[in-house]
Specification:
Pfam family, one: HTH_24
CATH superfamily: Winged helix-like DNA-binding domain superfamily/Winged helix DNA-binding domain
CATH topology: Arc Repressor Mutant, subunit A
Distance between the termini: 52 Å
Number of strands: 2
Organism: Rhodovulum marinum
CATH architecture: Orthogonal Bundle
Number of helices: 4
Protein name: AsnC family transcriptional regulator
CATH class: Mainly Alpha
Strand order of the largest sheet: 1-2
Order of helices and strands: HHHEEH
Radius of gyration: 24 Å
């Protein structure tokens, strides 16, 4: 079983490549906030697993570049990873909603026109001590 963080990176890579197969490794690593070395490792692993294939082409500056194309297995894996990604994000969302509700209950906003709350002994600032 893979780690959720690794699944998230793989999903995001497959998602970006399905939208823009001609993207460079450097631009992809910048978009996803991972190192170029990690991106290279991830792309090689996806190619070895048969989820991606590469096609070379000439860029406008006459340099050889690669297009990363999702294979049928890659499309299937992207769908599987999307489901897990969505479930994790929904769980994070529910946890955040619960935390916000607790904070709103514990620290209600002041009523309009009310004087600021006085600081009690447990609410002193470090500079006051």
């Amino acid at each position: 079983m893979t780690r959720p963080a690794a699944d998230d990176v793989r999903f995001r890579v497959l998602q970006e490549l399905s939208a823009d197969p001609n993207i460079s490794q450097r631009e992809l690593s910048d978009r996803l906030g991972v190192s170029l070395g990690r991106m290279n490792y991830c792309l090689r692993a996806l190619i070895e697993k048969g989820l991606l294939k590469t096609e070379s082409f000439r860029a406008s500056d006459n340099k050889l570049r690669y297009a990363y194309l999702l294979t049928p297995r890659g499309l299937s894996e992207r769908s599987r990873l999307a489901h897990g990604f969505l479930m994790r994000k929904m769980a994070e969302y529910e946890a955040l909603k619960a935390e916000i509700a607790t904070l709103q209950r514990d620290f209600p906003p002041p009523e309009p026109g009310a004087a600021p709350r006085e600081e009690g002994p447990g609410n002193r600032r470090e500079s006051d001590e």
